[in-house]
Amino acid sequence: VLCCVLCVHLVSERSVRCRFPLCISLCVRILSSYILDKAKRERERSPPLDKTSEMTPWRNVVVVPGNGLDDDIRHPHHWYKPLGDALVAAGLFAECRLPVPHMPDPHTARESVWVPYIEEQLIRGDYEGSVLVGHSSGAMAALRLLERLPERQHQLAGVVLLGACLTDLGNANETASGYYSRPFDWAKIRAGANWIVQLHGTDDPFIPLDGEARAVAEGLGLRGTDNYQEIEGASHFFTLEAALPQVRAVLQAKAKS
User: Fold this and answer.
1) Which of 125, 185, 191, 228 could form an SS bridge with 150, CB 3.0 to 4.6 Å?
2) Phi (first) and psi of residue 106, to 5 degrees
3) C-beta separation of 194 from 147 below 8 A
């Protein structure tokens, strides 16, 4: 702008002959230099960006709910879609895969129905690029899925278990699900994923720590490691506020490890 003002003044005073192309070129160069210098200063003042998304090898987060969900899992009163969306927004995944509108056999959650559905409809062959987050019955389905993967030479990128248990706890519906009909093959389960993290609330009203959650952690070889966490004051992860901070922190740590 100053260049143009000076140019107009000199020409009007007949001090110089107008060199319009040269003037424009000079103004463009000065303006470009100013813009680049300003952008550099802004970058220097800005906090460093979280590079998690550039480090994670994962593509999909597969979220499997607990039993009893028989309406649309995307409804706002369920926390599963917001959790997946938040993990994608954090740069950890490109896609969240949910059972839409809900899992088949939603109340009994039979192993014979849920495990094939998870593998065929949610993982869809992308084992190495998928992290499975299983809640309650979804955690039990995850364990039985992992158990069958090694013999087919598949391995999930990772698994997060929320509210897993060892037995049917004397509940007839849980007995009918089939997950507890035989002992768990812990060696195969461990081999079915690159890593497994188990989270359990200390105030879970359904699944006690002793004999259940801790027994699962023992079988998985997680006791005494960061991969088994007892969340103080947490219940059965009924809400987004209870689940998201814990799951996101686990995944961010895994992505950077």
Assistant:
1) 191
2) -65, -25
3) no
